What we know:
This protein is mostly beta strands. 11% of the residues lie in helices and 32% in strands. It is built from five helices and 15 strands. A hairpin with an 8-residue loop joins strand 7 and strand 8.
Amino acid sequence: MHTIHMPMRGRAEDQYIKKRNHIPILHLHSPARTRTMSTSISLLIPPILALSFLLFPPISAADFNREFDLTWGQGRAHILDNGQLLTLTLDRTSGSGFQSKNHYLFGKLDMQLKLVPGNSAGTVTAYFLKSGGAAWDEIDYEFLGNLSGQPYTLHTNVFTNGKGDREQQFRLWFDPTTDFHTYSILWNPNTIVFSVDGTPIREFKNLEAAGVPFPKSRPMRLYSSLWNADDWATRGGLVKTDWSNAPFAASYRDFRAGEACVWSGGETATFCTPPAATSGWLNQRLDSMNQQKLRWVQSHYMIYNYCTDTKRFPHGPPTECNTAAAH
């Protein structure tokens, strides 16, 4: 597997459209293997993952009108169904996006997404937490579109003090375009956990004792956007967006932030008190069963891991990749 270091992309459309460098470019599987991937994935799902669908917390879904602002797209983003559904669209002129009204300093945030169906090549649906300032922190999900019949790439990253370069990428064990699925971020002083339908797919532990920066003092907003990135998103930019399929649309529902600390101060903070009834998440770590799920997902569905990219890190992987340092 090869990684191509992409130069920083200077996009002028909008401040909310994200800029990326060092994006790993992955070669697709052969057509024959790709056609059978969805069938193979369905056969691989073990009971341990099926149990995850039963573990969502009983917290009521939020009203998008109360929780979010539509920030760009000139009418291409819509809140529908009395605040229970939000849609973003993308056409040749512009994409669209939204952001949370609240800042969060630690929390467990859940959102159900249904991604762009069909030929989504060139499109990116981004869903992320991000603080302000030049030395920002960020916790990323990005869904990289693909040709019809070929799987999405789920791209994850963690930024601290304005520096990322911690990409891990996955295929999913389901088609994310036919129904809604829950994408969660658990962020507390101990760890960051990315989960899909209750199943952990990635963990970034607090290893400050080993010299690894960890986001813990900058409140973050939740952002999402749908935009055109056909200069890099699909096969390194070889596959361009087919505008005959526009407008492209992604849908959101069932946002839950009941287990989160809403920050009401400025852009920096050192402490925030969560509701006592839900503060168990503040010290939560992955237990042995969830560690087993994490290892299973990473062994079957991870397609890129910066920790194992020796061409990118010829002098050894970053400190957090050292298993000994992580325990």
